Amino acid sequence: MTESDRAAGGETADRGPGVGLDAAIESVEREFGTLFVKLRNRMRAQALQLHPEIQPAGYLMLTTLSRSGPMHAGALAEVLYADKSLVSRQASQLEQLGLLRREQDPADRRATYFALTDEAQERLKKLFELGRSELRAGLSDWDVDELHLFARLLHRLNEF
Predict the structure, then answer these.
(1) pLDDT tens, position by position, 18-50
(2) Which of 10, 13, 30, 73 has CB 3.0 to 4.6 Å from 5, enough for a Cys bridge?
(3) Are residues 74 and 106 in the same domain?
């Protein structure tokens, strides 16, 4: 067993009841912290690649719209766990940059929803392809069964 395995709680059988679980949970917390920092830095870098004036919140809005399609401001705020005023401010900036447009809702002419411009769609497509290539390179030495297990565990984690 390696030192990192021991630090991650891999050597817990002789510690008594509950101790192994506590160590394992602490290990998960540490790894979440590391993952969070890496993801935040990656998101910032991708936002800059998309456009040098985009903030991470704006990047999240664009990627959400790319995956989910046009949305009303309230729905977008809910999906992003963000305040509607943040969504509104970011939408204004993204409109000015030519990456977002407001469209009238045909079902309720008083309401508008946000949609990506063609330019935003093209830029995001290239970024997603690059990200997928990087992920493929980083996970290429993993066994396919490990990847499926990892995906199932991430899905399970996202459900709580």
Answers:
(1) 679 999 999 999 999 999 999 999 999 999 999
(2) 10
(3) yes
